[in-house]
Recover the amino acids of this structure.
């Protein structure tokens, strides 16, 4: 089982030892300053999760309705199968509305400051109607994906989940359509420049494909 390159872990606070020592010393100094001035003590942050859809086989459909029941976050530093935090929500929407780059709010929560390194979405139902009027089954194959981010005190972080429907008739046969979590990114739109630190999903090599969270090594 292949793991995420060590360079990726540095984005989650696993940098070289000397950098970590300097960073930790800075945090201790900052913490002492904050305590002395009564700042940042017990103040929550805000997480807003939004939903969008990427164009692919969804253009075969007149309508694709998904019902979302939860978003799950993985705290940084824990084994990949443990510690997941479930944020319940309730949303039904037609993904066809979201293929123009727009997004809709999925949930908004006030949370204690914390760092995360993975995210997943829980779909309770999905169904589609083709342009021909035929109702077609779509398999939910959404899986966790790697993403390093933090909820910080008195700040709002926007996390966008990009779903996609793909046509797999040439591969698995039945049913011919699958729903995947294509990527998760910070902000309303993904940044694509090579040096941009906001691009924190892990590429697999194929353009715009992302390594599923399940491929991470347990820690």
């Amino acid at each position: 089982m292949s793991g995420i390159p060590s360079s990726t872990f540095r984005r989650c606070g696993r940098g070289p030892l000397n950098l970590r020592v300097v960073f930790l010393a800075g945090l201790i100094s900052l913490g002492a300053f904050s305590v002395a001035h009564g700042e940042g003590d017990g103040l929550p942050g805000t997480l807003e999760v939004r939903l969008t859809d990427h164009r692919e086989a969804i253009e075969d459909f007149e309508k694709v309705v998904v019902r979302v029941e939860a978003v799950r976050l993985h705290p940084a530093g824990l084994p990949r199968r443990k510690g997941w935090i479930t944020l319940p929500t309730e949303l039904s929407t037609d993904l066809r509305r979201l293929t123009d780059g727009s997004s809709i709010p999925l949930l908004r929560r006030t949370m204690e400051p914390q760092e995360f390194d993975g995210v997943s979405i829980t779909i309770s139902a999905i169904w589609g109607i083709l342009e021909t009027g035929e109702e077609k089954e779509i398999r939910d194959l959404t899986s966790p994906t790697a993403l390093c981010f933090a909820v910080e005190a008195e700040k709002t972080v926007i996390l966008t989940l990009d779903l996609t429907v793909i046509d797999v008739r040439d591969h698995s046969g039945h049913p011919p359509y699958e729903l995947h979590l294509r990527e998760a990114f910070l902000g309303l739109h993904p940044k694509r420049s090579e040096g941009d630190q906001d691009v924190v999903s892990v590429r697999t090599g194929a353009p715009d494909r992302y390594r599923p969270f399940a491929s991470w090594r347990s820690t």
Remarks:
- The first strand starts at residue 45 and ends at 54.
- The chain has a mean pLDDT of 75.
